[in-house]
Each structure stands twice: as C-alpha cells, then as structure tokens.
Design brief:
CATH architecture: Orthogonal Bundle
Largest sheet: 2 strands, antiparallel
Radius of gyration: 21 Å
Shape: globular
Length: 167
C-alpha cells in the first residue's frame, strides 16, 4: 500500500511537470508558426521577418548592429537586407550622424501593412492582459523578460559551441 501511495504521488508530480512543459512547448511551437504565417503573408522567410521586427523595435541601424542584434553573421545580414530591400520593406541610407555609415531604414509604405497584420493580435493580447491586476501584469512582464534573457544566453552559448568556442 505504501508503495502505491508513493507511486501515485510521484505520478502526480511528474504529471504536473509534464503539463507545465507541454504548455510551454505548445506556446513555443504556436509562436514559431505564427511568425512563419506572418512571414509567408508578407512574402518573406522567417529570418528576414524577424530581422525586420528588430528594425521595427529599434529604428534605423547599421548592418553590423543588425547582425549583432539578430545573432547572424554580417554576410547573412547582407542577404537579409538585400531581400528586404527587393521586397520594398527597407532601404539603405546614409546615417544622419555619420555620413560615412549606411543604415537600414524601414519604408513607411510597408509599415502600415505590418501594423494592420498585428492590430487584431495586439487587441486580443491587451484584452487578455486586462484580466490581470497591475501587480500580476508586472509579474508576467518580469517572467517574460527573464525568460527572454535565459533564451538569449542559451542561444549565445549554443552558437559558441557550434563555432568551437569554449563554454
């Protein structure tokens, strides 16, 4: 009987952990599929879409800064910018502060299209967040930020291992 109770408690604990893991795995997969669908809708690949998102969040930046922010090589970024430019999302322009530098600038014509795509999702997310108290929202924001930091550090470590750098 004692073994049965122990086994049942262990099963319950393992089930709770599996459910938590399954929820995060499902959210991760849905997020990837969301961004793939958006990229497809815009006629982009997912890497180009996310680089465009980095530009949307940070404003004009050099190719080197975009490479740093995305974790891609400068060579890969050249291809990304070429494709985004060809699709009419960005243009290369002289940096206002240092004319020797070139920055990547988002074209406003395509920005409206992107905003339209995210409007409904943003509204639904805002409605969901409104269900939580300001204190709960702060915890959710903190958790998301910290999770992002963990992911960024993990990616950096993986890239270092891939490139033969020590951990």
């Amino acid at each position: 009987m004692l073994r049965y109770i122990f086994d049942k408690r262990l099963w319950w604990a393992m089930s709770i952990e599996r459910v938590k893991t399954d929820v995060w795995r499902e959210l991760s997969a849905r997020t990837i599929f969301l961004h793939q669908a958006i990229a497809d809708h815009l006629g982009l690949n997912i890497t180009d879409h996310k680089c465009l998102d980095i530009l949307l969040q940070n404003g004009p930046m050099t190719a080197g800064k975009l490479a740093e922010a995305s974790g891609l090589t400068t060579g890969a970024i050249t291809g990304v910018v070429d494709r985004l430019e060809k699709k009419g999302f960005v243009r290369r322009a002289a940096d206002d502060r240092d004319r020797r530098k070139t920055v990547i600038v988002i074209l406003p014509e395509r920005l409206a299209e992107i905003k339209r795509l995210f409007r409904e999702l943003g509204e639904k997310t805002e409605a969901l967040m409104a269900c939580y108290t300001p204190e709960e929202q702060a915890v959710i924001d903190d958790f998301a930020r910290r999770t992002g930091d963990i992911i960024a550090a993990f990616v950096k470590r993986l890239k270092g291992q891939h490139e033969g750098q020590p951990e």
